[in-house]
Write a structure and sequence with these properties.
The structure is a single chain. The chain is α/β, with parallel strands linked by helices. It has nine helices and 15 strands. The chain has a nine-stranded mixed beta sheet, sandwiched between helices. The longest helix is centred in the N-terminal third of the chain and has 15 residues. The radius of gyration is 19 Å and the shape is globular.
Length: about 300
Amino acid sequence: MMTTQDDDSPASVERVTARTGPARAAITGPDGPPGHGAFAPGMVARVGLAIGRSLPKGRAGLRLAGAARPLALSGLKDGRCDVEALGLKLRVHPKDNLSEKRLFLTPQCFDPDELDAVRAVMAPGKTFMDIGANAGAYALVAAKAGGRGSRVVAVEPQAEMRRRMLFNARQNGLENLEVTGVALADYEGEDVMRMVAGNLGGTALTGPGEASGEAVRVTTLPTLMTELRIERIDAMKIDVEGGELDILSAFFKQIDADRWPELMVLERADLAGRDAPDAAALAQSKGYKVQQYTRMNVILVR
C-alpha cells in the first residue's frame, strides 16, 4: 500500500492506494516505516492512558484529564505515540497539537456527537469533505465508516498535518481518502498560513508579508469541486479558524441546491468570540436546521 500524488488536476491530491510499484509521492521522513506499534506506550504511560480514557465524555472528562496527562506522556519517543482511538490505529503527536493530544488521552471526548453524525451519513457512494482537516480525525473516521465505495477529501494546507494524516490512513488501509494542500476562501490567489496560538494543527490565512509561514494556493470550494470532479458533497466539516463564512458564501453562490450537503459540522463562532454574522447563520438562511449545538461546533442538517 502506497501514497501517490495525482497531478492530473490543478489541485494536487495525495491518496493511499494498493497499487504496486514506485510511489509518485511516497511518504518520507520519521513517520514512514516503521509502522504502527513501533512507538507503543510504556507501562507508566499505559496507566495514564487507562485513567484518561475512563473519564466521562465532555467538559468534565477534559478537566479531569490533566491529572493523568503527566503519566500518559512519560517516556514518549520523539514526542509521538502509537495508540488506538476512534476505532483506528493512530500515531499521534500529543505534545505539539491540541487535537492529537485529545485523541491520545481522551478520545471519548473528541467531538463524539459530531463524529456519530458523520458515521450515520457515510455509506458507499457518499462523499465527505473535511475542510481544515488538521491531523485528520474526521476524515479518517468518515473514510472508515463509508468504506471503499465512498469518497473522502481532506483539505489541509499544512504539509506536516498532511503527512501525519496520510501515515495513519495507510496504517488503516483507507484507500478512499484523498488529501489536498490548498486553502479554501472566497477568492483565488496565494497567501501565507500562520500558526495559531502555538498549536501546530491550528492555522489561519494571512496576507503576504503579514506573517511568516507556509505559502499556499488559495481557491474556492466550487473551484476545488470542479478540479477534483466532485459532483455532490453529502457531508462536510469546516473548521478554519474563522474562515467558515467566506468558504460557504462562495459555495452557496455558485453551487446548485441539489448539490448541497445533507449534513454540515461548523465551528461555533460564538465560542470563538466572533460577533459578526457566521457560517451557521448563513446556512440557516439557506434552509438548514440546527440539529445540535455541541461543546465546540454546531451540527446542521437539510
